[in-house]
Amino acid sequence: MAPKSLPVEEKSAQNNNGATIQESHTGYGDGQVSRKVTGARWFIVNLAVLSATFLAKFYGQVNNKLLYLSALLIFEVGSVVIASAQSIDGLLIARAVAGLGGSGIYVGTLNILTAMTTPAERNQYLNFVGIAWSLGTILGPVVGGAFADSSATWRWAFYLNICIAGLTTPACIWTCPSCPTFIF
């Protein structure tokens, strides 16, 4: 026997940024809420998701080194704003900015490694990129959770990005090639 269909209660609310958030309650008593994001937040989320597509095109037409360092700067500015955000809206917008910079760093890494290696050794170096991404995916939440539980607070997980960039940016400036190379 099929379960009886319960009415769906929907509410819409508009926040101070003009974004409309719609909530639907199923009425089954399970406490589940489905949300739809519209307005400016929808645009920011889609921009962050599709940014790697746009950046791949730029890497084929612009100096690799300058675009990579620009993406690094965008990521670090986003990290600073995230760490110092005083509202959830500021945090979300800064997270989208940092995501744009992060996708530029990833696509740039692939292009720069392609320019610096021969076809025979390229797979090995691209595997190192995959290993680093995997470790970051696993260790990122662990390190962030450790900061959140400590007296340092979660903000230091993002301030740590600035310290790492300060140590590694000189190596990027001195070793990255400047020619445009397009792999996609």
From TrEMBL:
The answer to whether keyword Transmembrane helix applies is yes
Provide the topology term for how it sits in the membrane. Multi-pass membrane protein
Which locations, inside or outside the cell, does it occupy? Membrane
| Record keyword Heme present | no
Q: Where is the Major facilitator superfamily (MFS) profile domain?
A: 1-184
Gene Ontology cellular-component annotations: plasma membrane
- Segments traversing the membrane: 40-59, 66-86, 92-113, 125-144, 156-176
Annotated region Disordered: where?
Answer: 1-29
Family from the record: Belongs to the major facilitator superfamily. TCR/Tet family.
- Recorded protein name is Major facilitator superfamily (MFS) profile domain-containing protein
Q: Which organism is it from?
A: Hymenoscyphus albidus
Query: Could you read off the lineage of the organism from its UniProt record?
Result: Eukaryota, Fungi, Dikarya, Ascomycota, Pezizomycotina
